[in-house]
Design a protein that fits this description.
- The structure is a single chain.
- Strands 7, 8, 9, 10, 11, 12, 13, 15 and 16 form a nine-stranded antiparallel sheet that branches.
- The chain has three domains: 170 residues, D-amino Acid Aminotransferase, Chain A, domain 1 (2-Layer Sandwich), CATH 3.30.470; 65 residues, ATP-grasp fold, A domain (Dna Ligase, domain 1), CATH 3.30.1490; 80 residues, ATP-grasp fold, B domain (D-amino Acid Aminotransferase, Chain A, domain 1, 2-Layer Sandwich).
- The chain has 338 residues and is of the alpha+beta class.
- It is built from eleven helices and 17 strands.
- The radius of gyration is 20 Å and the shape is globular.
C-alpha cells in the first residue's frame, strides 16, 4: 500500500500491525505519525514501561515480566497480591485480569495467553495501585510544542473503558505533575519522525501523587467525550498537529460525558433500536448525541457505539447520568430474535 500510494503521512490507527515496516519506511523518508518509534514502543507494554520507568524515571506501579506460568508465580510472590496481569501485546483489555488470591495465578496466565497478540508469550505483572481515580491526559505535540486538553476521568471494567467525563476534578499539583510527565514521554517518543499528533496518556492519581499507567499514540477511546465537550475534538487536534496547522487554545464547552453501548453475544446479523428514544427528552441545556461505530460483527462486551452528553450550567455528575441513561435506551436486536 505504501509503495502504491506514496502517502504524505502514514497514520497508524490500530495496534495490530507489523511496526518494523513503519520503521523501514520512516528510514526511507516517509512521515510516520507520530513516529515509528512511538508505534513500536506503545504496541509493547514492556517497551513503553521500560522507557517510562527506566529511561525517564517516571513513577509507575511495581512490575515484573513473566514468560511462563512458573515465572508468573515467582512474580506474584515477589510483588505480592493483589496483582494485575496483562499480555505485553494486546488491546482493549484482552487477556487482562486481577489476581487476588494465589490460587488465581494459573487462570490469569491462561487468560493472558488467550488474549495475546503477536508471537511473544510474555506478560507484565503489576502491583495493584491503590488509587483515588484515573485520568487520560490528551497531549498534543505539534510544530509549536506541547499542549493539553483538560483531564478526562474514566471508569473501566474488564480492563476496558465504560464511561468517561471531562473535565475531571484534580488538584493543581497533580495536574501539573501529570502534564510534566506526559510532555516528557511524548517528547521521548518522537524518534526519527517529527513526533506530531495527539497522545492519550493514562495516569492513576492518589491525592497529589501521579503514577504513569499507559499511553496510546493516537486518539484515545476515553477521549470520545471530546466529540461533545470541546470546540476541537481529539480527531480535529490529531489532524491539525499532523498537518502542521495552528492549534488554538482548547475550550471545553461544558461538563460532558460518554457512556459505551455494549454487545452481549457473537452475531453477524443485528440492528440498533432505541436511538430515537435516547435522543429525546434531554431537557433544557442538555445536548445528547449517539455515535454508532459501524462494526460488522458483535462479540460479548464489544463496544458498538457511544452515547455523548453535555450539560449547560450543570455538573459532571449530571452529564454522566445523562450519557448513561441515553446509552441504556439503545439496544441491539439480533437476527435470531423474534
Amino acid at each position: 500500500m505504501i509503495e502504491k500510494h506514496r502517502p504524505d503521512h502514514i497514520v497508524p490507527e490500530i495496534e495490530a500491525i507489523r511496526t518494523s515496516v513503519l520503521a523501514d519506511y520512516e528510514a526511507k523518508g516517509f512521515d510516520v505519525v507520530p513516529s515509528a518509534r512511538a508505534a513500536q514502543m506503545t504496541m509493547n507494554r514492556d517497551a513503553i514501561r521500560d522507557l517510562a520507568a527506566g529511561e525517564l524515571g517516571l513513577t509507575t506501579s511495581p512490575y515484573l515480566y513473566a514468560e511462563s506460568l512458573e515465572e508468573l508465580r515467582e512474580a506474584a510472590e515477589a510483588i505480592g497480591l493483589p496483582l494485575v496481569v496483562k499480555p505485553v501485546m494486546s488491546s482493549s483489555g484482552k487477556g487482562q485480569s486481577t489476581v487476588r488470591e494465589v490460587g488465581e495465578v494459573d487462570a490469569a496466565w491462561d487468560y493472558a495467553a488467550r488474549g495475546m497478540r503477536g508471537d511473544r508469550r510474555r506478560v507484565i505483572a503489576e502491583g495493584f495501585v491503590d488509587f483515588d481515580y484515573e485520568i487520560t491526559l490528551l497531549t498534543v505535540r505539534a510544530n509549536f510544542g506541547v499542549t493539553f486538553c483538560p483531564p478526562i476521568g474514566h471508569r473501566q471494567e474488564r480492563g476496558d473503558y465504560r464511561e468517561s467525563w471531562q473535565p475531571a476534578a484534580m488538584s493543581a499539583a497533580a495536574l501539573a505533575e501529570a502534564q510534566a510527565m506526559a510532555e516528557k514521554i511524548v517528547t521521548a517518543l518522537g524518534g526519527a519522525g517529527r513526533g506530531w499528533g495527539i497522545f492519550g496518556v493514562e495516569f492513576f492519581i492518589k491525592g497529589d501523587a501521579v503514577i504513569f499507567s499507559e499511553l496510546s499514540p493516537r486518539p484515545h477511546d476515553t477521549g470520545m467525550v471530546t466529540l461533545v465537550s470541546q470546540d476541537l475534538n481529539e480527531f480535529d487536534l490529531h489532524a491539525r498537529a499532523i498537518l502542521g496547522l495552528p492549534v488554538p487554545p482548547i475550550a471545553v464547552k461544558g461538563a460532558s460525558a460518554s457512556a459505551v453501548i455494549l454487545a452481549d453475544r457473537d452475531a453477524e446479523d443485528f440492528a440498533f433500536e432505541g436511538i430515537d428514544a435516547a435522543l429525546e427528552g434531554a431537557g433544557e441545556g442538555t445536548h445528547l448525541d449517539i455515535r454508532i461505530f459501524g462494526k460488522p460483527v458483535t462479540r460479548p462486551w464489544r463496544r458498538m457505539g457511544v452515547a455523548l452528553a453535555r450539560v449547560e450550567n450543570g455538573s459532571v455528575s449530571d452529564a454522566r447520568a445523562a450519557a448513561t441513561a441515553a446509552a441504556g435506551k439503545v439496544t441491539i436486536r439480533y437476527g435470531d430474535e423474534a
